[in-house]
Amino acid sequence: MKALRFNKFGDPVEVLRIERVPEPLPGPEEVLVRVHAASLNPSDVKNVQGNFKKTTLPRIPGQDFAGVIIAGNKEMIGQEIWAAGGDIGFTRDGSHAEYIVIPKKAARPKPKSLSMSEAASVGINFITAYLGLLDRAGLEDGETLLVTGAAGGVGSSVSKIAKLKSARVIGVDRRPIDPERARRMGIDLALSSESDDIVRRTREFTGGKGVDVLFDCVGGPLFETAINSLGVGGRQVNITSVGDRRVCFDLLDFHHRQLTLFGVDTAKLDIVACGNILESIRPGFEDGRLTPPEINRTYSLDDVIEAYRQVAKGAAKGKIVLTFQP
Q: Does the first or last residue of the chain, that is N or C, have fewer Cβ atoms within 10 Å of its Cβ?
């Protein structure tokens, strides 16, 4: 089969190679999946660059995909599935190849309403949003949420999942979000971190209370602004820190307002655990309450290194998806 592989860490353009490798064979509790589509995440690029200590080499990268089971458990052959994981592409071969072997417990039915490309684009973004927003912060019906990096992959997924809880959503991004796009993402108030007073506008929107939950996809320069936007008893989720990884905030204020801070890292979830989350959100896609990310462009496996280059330099806006000829 054809697969994208790297034998050392470095610049994706320099270390990635499209190679012919043996087709993997499924074990007793595994299935072989023909990959129809696989998405490309910033974390895949960072993996190739050597930012994850757990990665073992040589390795096929790729965390998200959708495809058809062609071997393994006889009762499952022919099923259309979707999957993602914090282990595939890191400690086991990933989805940027024509075939992938996964545990049969991780092979969850793809939403019938989504194409293969759409299903492949959901993966880690929505899993991160679900884990932070519902599992950790415990967003409740009717609460108010602020999400930073709202136009990004995780941020837009957070807003959409929040709407399952009828939450009011404030979306903050560096540049103003187009009103129609904000509406599609479920954002009730769109703000710019460059031109708006986030704390003041948030207080106005919430009648002076502050938000119940804050999902920070930026960290660094926005961390203190974010935490100051929380109301009493507020919960904040952080998944990264852009720029400076060290942040400052008023610890006594944090204590008096009875705030809670959660760190979320989906790299700790294997493909089976991620499959359980995908199964939880599948009904939302099938009944139309959830929509997949906007796909910016599709690439073939032959052109995948160029796709990595685009993501590495920050030129890709929207989701990048690799498609494979069946």
A: C
Mean pLDDT for the stretch of residues 219-232? 95
Q: Which of these, 265, 205, 256, 255, lies nearest to 229 by C-alpha position?
A: 205
Domain extent listing, the chain: 2-110+294-323, 125-266
Nearest-angstrom CA–CA distance, 141 and 98: 42
Token pair, residue 239, equals: 């998944």
Which distant-in-sequence residues (6+ apart) come within 8 Å of 313 by Cβ? Answer: none
2-110+294-323 and 125-266 agree in CATH topology: yes
Beta carbons within 8 Å of 18's beta carbon, 6+ residues apart: 2, 3, 4, 5, 301, 302, 304, 305
Between CA 23 and CA 110 the distance in angstroms is 23
CA distances from 117 to 47, 58, 300 (A): 22, 27, 12
Half-sphere exposure of 212 (CA within 13 A, CB side): 16
- Whether the CB-CB separation of 171 and 189 falls below 8 Å is answered with yes
Q: Which CATH class is domain 2-110+294-323?
A: alpha beta
pLDDT-based confidence at residue 242 (cuts at 50, 70, 90):
confident
* Structure token digits, residue 18: 């499209």
Q: Nearest Cα to 103, choosing from 311, 288, 272? A: 272
Q: How far apart are CA 289 and CA 16, in angstroms?
A: 38
Model-level pTM greater than 0.90? yes
**If you average pLDDT over residues 255-284, what whole number do you get?**
96
How many residues can be counted in the chain? 326
Confirm if 97 and 1 have CB atoms less than 8 A apart: yes
pLDDT at 243: 83
